[in-house]
Design a protein that fits this description.
By secondary structure, the chain is mainly beta. The protein contains 1 helix and 15 strands, in the order αβββββββββββββββ. It has an 8-stranded mixed sheet. The longest helix has 19 residues.
Length: 191
Amino acid sequence: VVVLSILICTCLVQAMAVDDGMPYTDANGVMWTFSPRDYWYDDNGDGNSTSHYYYTITGVSNYGDNVVVPPTMSYSGITYTIEAIDYGIFRNNLTLNSVSLPTTIKYIAGEAFYGCTALTKITGADNCECIQDGAFQNCSSLASIDLSNCLYVGSSALYSCGNLTSIVSIAECKTVDSWAFYNTGLQVVNL
């Protein structure tokens, strides 16, 4: 009976940790939480959304002004590949200066970097397949972004990025939603 009780309690604690996000602290002392999430987006331009299941960063603290997102995180002895950044994770961080995404990131949720007015540099976005609504909206210092493998750019994704003058490539994109590049410094977007 005691062994069964301990086993049940252990399972409940692990289930709660997954629901709240699995904790992970990287070598720099940045504290992350991550969990599996299901995202839907139109990745082939036919107007139909398909499901994509990713291990997603759901929280972060103690990270400073220059963030390096790790490609993998471990929990309970299991290593998970991180493929998405959840809604509003860095929203309105006025001191965030640069973000380095690993090549594993496929999805940036809505408003993930919304209002990060000091953000000047983001690397690794070239591997991302989907940048959702308002993901970089009002990132007024961002000057360039590489969307080489992006299949979907959501509504207002880069809205009011006034210093944005360069998109390295958007050739693979199947869908660019309304207002995606409105009020930016872009003169031409080659599709």
